[in-house]
Design goal:
mainly alpha; two-stranded antiparallel sheet; 2 strands; flat
């Protein structure tokens, strides 16, 4: 009788430690510790992008410790044991945590982290490219609100990659036959404003 009584408890414990359950806890912990403060979230149909923002406050040793702990947990989850949608989200989450760990404790803000070239390249032939383009102005508006002294070592990199982003936007607009001209135009203006912020920092 005791053996049978313990079976539901055993099944419950196993379900709590399943890859899916661990991934959901990881998402919750990441959102609680980092995403609400230092990331701009873009929800697509099958995945979520977390684009870096300038931090509201200098990273602390505690934040670095949290990032390292969450990164270790993310890397320990077997991606192949998750659903297809969660596999994509785990990849994005690992990238965001890698960014957190790499830049925790930095004295100055690295503006090259906020270049949208790679996301645009990734989704250049994706059905949700339009949604990504529509979110870019809001993303850079938040960056402008949080703007702070950038790390001079990365300003030129941010400018160069942003200029490459403008070239990519021009190419995407031509490729679409003008169908996304409104969205690329607004995204282009936002990127140009970001370039202006970076260039003004070089003059200070």
């Amino acid at each position: 009788m005791l053996k049978h009584a313990l079976l539901p408890t055993l099944f419950f414990l196993l379900s709590c430690n399943s890859p899916e359950a661990r991934f959901k806890r990881l998402q919750h912990d990441f959102w609680e510790k980092f995403a609400q403060q230092d990331f701009f979230e873009i929800k697509l149909k099958n995945e979520v992008l977390h684009l870096p923002l300038p931090p509201n406050s200098p990273p602390s040793e505690q934040q670095k410790s949290w990032a390292e702990r969450l990164q270790k947990e993310a890397n320990s989850i077997e991606k192949e044991e998750l659903s297809g949608e969660n596999q994509k989200q785990l990849i994005q989450l690992r990238a965001a945590l890698e960014d957190c760990v790499a830049h925790a404790g930095g004295a100055f803000f690295d503006p090259s982290r906020c270049v949208v070239l790679k996301p645009l390249q990734q989704f250049s032939d994706h059905e949700e490219l339009l949604l990504l383009l529509e979110k870019i102005p809001a993303y850079y508006a938040q960056i402008e609100q949080r703007w702070q002294t950038p790390d001079a070592r990365f300003v030129l990199k941010a400018v160069t990659e942003s200029q490459n982003t403008l070239d990519l936007l021009n190419g995407l607009e031509k490729k679409s036959g003008g169908e996304i001209v409104a969205q690329t135009g607004e995204a282009r203006a936002a990127v140009k404003d970001f370039i202006g912020l970076c260039q003004s920092a070089l003059l200070q």
